[in-house]
Amino acid sequence: MSLSWIILGQLDSIEAMSTSKKVITRDEWERKLKDVKIRKEDMNKLVMNFLVTEGFVEAAEKFRIESGTEPGIDLGTITDRMAVKKAVQFGNVKDAIEKVNDLNPMILYANPQLHFHLQQQRLIELIRIGKVEEALEFAQEELAPRGKENQSFLEELERTVALLAFEDVKNCPYGELLDVSQRLKTASEVNAAILANQSHEKDPKLPSLLKMLIWAQNQLDEKAAYPQINNLSTAMLEDPAI
User: Fold this and answer.
1) Which Pfam families match (predicted)?
2) What is the 3-state secondary structure (H, E, C) of 17-56?
3) Considering only CA atoms, which of 81, 90, 83 is closest in space to residue 197?
């Protein structure tokens, strides 16, 4: 990202100056922006990386045709991956596990933590709909053996089973396990595992670049007044407060 490198360059040049803040005008800042050359191909790859990682298969296909940027993976696998993620998000964990195994049984075999978390999510869904006896049986047969082999698994299992001790489970000390955020967390974990299995980054590069931009601006704020981006959704430069 050109702006990040400009900011880092300004930091290096300001280090040797006095402690008073340097004022960088909008004209000077925009000239520096124009001096930085970024290949269109690199920007296209950044966009495609985001579309593929986040699962926007139709957009990725259209972008491939329009820009000539290859996604690096079979776009059909994105549809399969999103089907798994959606199943977990809607609480259909058994279906999600079957879909993962259809993609590649080694994904869960090589990742016991992910397998446990998916099974834990199945247990949570049973508790959610009030199937107490089935939940206890499932916990004993599927999760307890894994807990004996891993202390952290055992602790997570105990927290989950503890939900059964409360009549108002949503307001009990472990009620957050029933929140939608727990489903999203598990869905994100399985999504990352599938991406890794497909030799693709588990996280898109664009958010990391934006974090770098924010960090660089925070560093430069201490040393200079300059036009900066305060709203990432619009990316508009705002004049420095002098």
Assistant:
1) CTLH, LisH
2) CCCCCEECCHHHHHHHHHHCCCCHHHHHHHHHHHHHHHCC
3) 81
> Who wins on pLDDT, 60 or 7?
60
* 3-class SS string, 149-216: HCHHHHHHHHHHHHHHHCCCHHHCCCHHHHCHHHHHHHHHHHHHHHHHHCCCCCCCHHHHHHHHHHHH
Q: DSSP 3-state assignment of 237?
A: strand
Examine residue 71 and state whether it is found in any structural domain, yes or no.
no
Q: Give the whole-angstrom CA distance, residue 115 versus residue 68.
A: 38
140 and 227: one domain? no
The whole-model pTM stands at 0.74
Residue 27 burial (C-beta neighbours within 10 Å; 0-12, 13-18, 19+)? exposed
Contact indicator for 23, 240 with CB cutoff of 8 Å: yes
Domain count, the chain: 2
Question: Is residue 132 located within the same domain as residue 187?
Answer: yes
Q: Which domain holds residue 23?
A: 2-55+207-238
- Do residue 184 and residue 212 come from a single domain? no
Both tokens of 141, joined, read 């047969």
Q: Is residue 60 part of a domain?
A: no
Does position 191 have pLDDT exceeding 70, yes or no? Answer: yes
| Percent of the chain residues topping a pLDDT of 90 | 54
